[in-house]
Specification:
The complex is a heterodimer of chains A (about 850) and B (about 130). By secondary structure, chain A is an alpha+beta fold. Chain A is elongated. In chain B, helix 3 links the parallel strand 3 and strand 4. The longest helix of chain B has 14 residues. Classes of the chains: A alpha+beta (about 850), B alpha/beta (about 130). At the A-B interface, helix 17 and helix 18 of A face helix 1 of B.
Chain lengths: ~850, ~130
């Protein structure tokens, strides 16, 4: 349904129609009414009326009535010269009748066009066009008949003229209907779709040119030539190319040119008398218009059909495409799943295969082909498969597969393959045979896993295990050896096979075996990584019964076969030897310590000896001086004696003092002296004297020596102990202070006590006081206390200390022996 | 009042040296303990002190400092006996006038004492 662009209320629209209609009608009557003032051979108002009623509704018919009435009344009251002046009443009546005929005509034509001709979209098909043409031909019959009858009845036309009037009337209306209505309807209903303006204008210009040449130009050579047919190709061209809108314009152009020429008495129709010329013109225009309308409608229908066909084809194509896409999507899904499986297989190095037995069709997955190094998709067969196996594994795999084929059920094989390129891979194959109801194998399928990398890792692990400098032994909870490396073979002297038949206890010295079983149970109950027997002398028993010192660390292993223990065993024979060497070195160092002490002693002794030497020399000089004086005075020799007695005694005393120092030094320096029976307090007194003589600081020593029974001891060594303790005491007091030495019996033992008043031994130092080589002195050897303790302990005694912030007391306790001979002499004082 | 004071805890050394010096014609006093030295010096006003470097309770540095700080004693010639240190070291360290290393040759000691008495305190480097 085409909507009318013009929207007016019915009365207003009717009035507008009336005005237009009246103007067109009046003009036409005045211009073209030749045989009768009220019958024009050119009658556009019919086309205007039909178009208006088709477009805006039949209800506008009063506009037609009014327009026609006014136009006819005006003509009737103002007749052409020579015509009869009708009375007003007659004129009104006849005009009303004529207007009524026009209304009938317009309403009938509009009704037909609206119901059968497509209405506002008229002439879109050949059928609709035919209905339109039919309406245009039939409806004017009413108008012409009413009009002719009215004119005769009103006496405005002779009865003899009735036929001519009717024909004129009818032809005029038909022409108006065919030329004007389609033009108006098409252009008012919808704007034209001008796709190619050049073509559009070109055709119209060509048609206009032709129309002017034929109908208006009145050229000498073509004067009145019957060339009206020349316009038909242009109309046809316009109709075919430009549709109804275009042909409407073309027809209008032809109509204007032809009418103008004919009225001006030129052109093909001018050979006829004026009225006949106009009739012929109308007939011509009706034919031209009908042809244009028909061709345009046919063309439109063709186009529409083509468009419809095209639409259907598009729809069909769409459906085909949809189905194609759906199928493609499905395929993509399948492909995706296949790809996914392939990728999964590739990642897992897991290939798969199937064998359809009845069809003897073998299929390998892409990954399986990759594992075996064969091109994917190639023809596969069982023999071809066997050919890819490592020659050493081929028979075993073949047998396994045949057995599975014969009996059904799953199978697993581990084997090597040799790829066509010569590389060897390790594969674990799993397979399954499916049987039908009769027990016949119908299908076999399986997988192959490439475990070469795993084997490589395993081999690396083995290499590592074998290359280790330590012996490794893994035993299960029952103590059975399940793994041993090459070092274990070397350490224990067994072959690998022998080791794997033994229990760990076989590697333990016989005396300890029973206890070891308990240790093992204990470890399994609370497994943890631990060193074994730290500080203990662990020994391993070799196959030949000999024992080697070892160090062992244990780690629990949680395995699929239960808890196991991993033992790393290290042969420490070499280390033991090294340790012995260190001990020897230490022993030598201790001897050196003694030498060093002796060196200090000698230096000190030098000073001590100098003092008596000084006064010996001085006294000697004095003696000489006095003797010289006496000699000079001639006094008797006997008289000089009292004067030199004191210096001489002093000289003797000095010599004795030097001798004592030398004696003590000799005793101290004597190495590894054997114990002798002697007096401990005497030895201590000597040591004190020696220490005082050699001490370089300001420490004073206060000694209390109580009598002791004679006892066996190594005097030199005991004196060394005392000197060491005194050195420490002096050191503790910063080289000054007062140390106390007490000697006496105590609880059945001989006690020698050396006390200082220093700040005491700090707690962190206490732990290490006895450590050899531990020292707090910048130049100490750290051996003093350890050597002292060794000496005391070698005598069967003990050395201990007591320390506080007020000082430290070292106590040497030596066993008292029953007197081995005459009771010892009394105490000798010493200072 | 004595010309020379001998301070040594070794009585044998002190007495022998004193007698020798007396034999050479000097008046000599002796002291055997360190705390008694200063008192003896104030009592005897010796021109020269022969003193051992190592005596129980003797802080040599402080002792010599006290002598030099006391206007009454500062002019005394102080000679040290030593059996341990390098004489030059000790002299430099302590700022004394001279040092005699034990054991000395008695005649040499006598000779040097004469020399030091001649020169007076603080006049010569240690010899």
């Amino acid at each position: 349904m085409v909507k009318a662009p013009l929207r007016l209320g019915t009365p207003l629209a009717s009035l507008a129609l009336a005005v237009v209609y009246a103007a067109a009608a009046y003009g036409s009557l005045r211009l073209f009414a030749l045989v009768n003032a009220q019958a024009s051979p050119v009658w556009p108002p019919t086309g205007i009326a039909i178009a208006a009623l088709v477009l805006w509704g039949i209800r506008l018919w009063p506009g037609v009535l009014a327009g026609a009435f006014v136009a006819n009344l005006l003509v009737a009251l103002d007749p052409l010269p020579g015509a009869t002046q009708a009375s007003l009443a007659t004129a009104a009546l006849s005009s009303l009748a004529i207007a009524g005929g026009n209304v009938i005509e317009a309403v009938a034509a509009a009704a037909i066009v609206r119901s059968k001709g497509g209405g506002g979209a008229c002439c879109r098909s050949a059928t609709a066009a035919a209905w339109f043409i039919a309406a245009a031909l039939l409806a004017p019959v009413a108008s012409a008949s009413v009009g002719a009858a009215t004119l005769v009845a009103a006496g405005q036309a002779a009865a003899a003229e009735a036929g001519t009037v009717w024909l004129t009337w009818w032809l005029g209306d038909v022409g108006g209907a065919l030329v004007v209505a389609p033009f108006a309807i098409a252009w008012m209903a919808a704007p034209p779709r001008i796709i190619r303006a050049t073509e559009w204008l070109g055709i119209q210009a060509a048609a206009a040119t032709a129309a002017v040449l034929v109908f208006v130009a009145d050229l000498e050579v073509l004067r009145n030539a019957p060339l009206s047919f020349l316009l038909l190709p242009f109309v046809a061209w316009s109709a075919m190319r430009l549709q109804l809108h275009g042909v409407a314009v073309t027809v209008a152009l032809v109509a204007v040119a032809a009418t103008a020429g004919t009225v001006a008495r030129v052109g093909p129709f001018a050979v006829l008398p004026p009225h006949a010329a106009l009739l012929a013109l109308q007939a011509y225009l009706a034919v031209v218009a009908s042809t244009g309308i028909l061709l345009a409608s046919t063309s439109a229908e063709n186009r529409h059909t083509q468009a419809e066909l095209k639409g259907e084809r598009t729809e069909l194509e769409r459906r085909v495409l949809e189905r194609t896409l759906a199928i493609a999507a499905k395929q993509a899904e399948v492909e995706f799943a296949r790809k996914g499986l392939e990728e999964a297989q590739a990642m897992a190095h897991l290939g798969s295969w199937t064998w359809d037995v009845p069809q003897n069709k073998v299929e390998w997955s892409a990954e399986l082909c990759r594992i075996y190094g064969v091109p994917p998709g190639s023809e596969r067969s069982y023999d071809g498969y066997l050919a890819l196996l490592h020659p050493d594994d081929r028979a075993a795999v073949d047998a396994t597969v045949r057995r599975a084929f014969a009996t059904g059920g799953p199978f697993e094989v581990r084997h090597r393959i040799v790829r066509p390129d010569g590389t060897t891979r390790w594969v674990i194959g799993n397979g399954r045979a499916e049987q039908d109801a009769a027990g016949k194998v119908v299908r076999m399928s399986g997988t192959a896993l490439d475990v070469t990398e795993l084997r490589t890792t395993e081999e690396r692990f083995r290499t590592l295990l074998e290359a280790s400098p330590d012996a490794y032994v893994v035993a299960d909870a029952a103590g059975r050896i399940v793994l041993a490396n090459r070092q274990a073979e070397r350490l224990f002297g067994y072959e690998r096979d022998e080791l794997l038949r033994l229990a760990v206890e076989d590697l333990v010295p016989e005396a300890l075996r029973q206890r070891h079983v308990g240790h093992r149970a204990h470890f399994m109950a609370a497994p943890s990584v631990r060193p074994m027997g730290i500080g203990m002398d662990l020994r391993a028993r070799r196959k030949d019964g000999s024992e080697v010192p070892v160090e062992i660390s244990l780690s629990p292993l949680a395995t699929a076969d239960g808890m196991q223990v991993f033992a790393a065993v290290r042969d420490i024979t070499d280390r033991k030897r090294a340790e012995a060497e260190v001990a020897e070195t230490r022993r030598l160092a201790a001897a050196n310590e003694k030498l060093a002490a002796l060196g200090t002693l000698v230096a000190g002794v030098g000073h001590e000896v100098r003092t008596p030497l000084t006064y010996i020399a001085t006294n000697a000089a004095l003696v000489r001086l006095r003797i010289e004086k006496a000699a000079a005075t001639g006094a008797p020799a006997a008289g000089i004696l009292p004067e030199v007695e004191r210096p001489l005694a002093s000289i003797r005393e000095g010599v004795g003092r030097i001798d004592r120092i030398v004696q003590q030094m000799r005793q101290f320096a004597k190495a590894e002296l054997k114990a002798e029976v002697g007096s401990l307090e005497e030895a201590v007194a000597g040591a004190l004297e020696l220490w005082r003589a050699t001490h370089r600081g300001g420490t004073e020593v206060e000694a209390t020596l109580q009598p002791l029974p004679r006892m066996r001891f190594d005097k030199g060594q005991v004196q060394q102990v005392l000197i060491n303790l005194l050195n420490n005491a002096s050191e503790a007091m910063g080289g000054g202070g007062r140390a106390t030495v007490r000697v006496g019996p105590d609880r059945g033992q001989a006690l020698v006590e050396v006390a200082d008043h220093g700040p005491g031994i700090p707690p962190d130092v206490q732990r290490r006081v006895w450590d050899p080589f531990f020292t707090t002195k910048p130049e100490g050897t750290g051996l003093g206390l350890s050597v002292s303790r060794r000496i005391v302990e070698a005598h069967g005694g003990s050395l201990a200390y007591e320390t506080s912030s007020r000082g430290t007391t070292f106590r040497v306790r030596l066993p008292l022996e029953p007197p081995a001979g005459p009771p010892g002499s009394g105490p000798e004082g010493a200072a | 009042v004595s010309e020379i004071l001998i301070a040594d805890d070794e009585r044998q050394v002190a007495q022998a040296t004193a007698e020798l010096l007396q034999a050479y014609g000097h008046s000599v006093a002796t002291v055997n303990d360190a705390p008694g030295i200063l008192a003896a010096m104030r009592r005897e006003h010796p021109r020269l002190v022969l003193q051992d470097v190592r005596m129980p309770g003797l802080d040599l540095d402080a002792h010599l400092g006290a002598i030099r700080a006391d206007p009454e004693l500062a002019g005394t010639v102080v000679i040290l006996f030593t059996a341990t240190m390098s004489v030059h070291e000790l002299a430099r360290l302590l700022g004394c006038d001279g040092i005699v290393e034990k054991p000395y040759v008695p005649e040499e000691l006598m000779q040097r004492v004469e020399e030091w008495l001649r020169r007076g305190a603080g006049t010569a480097p240690a010899g």
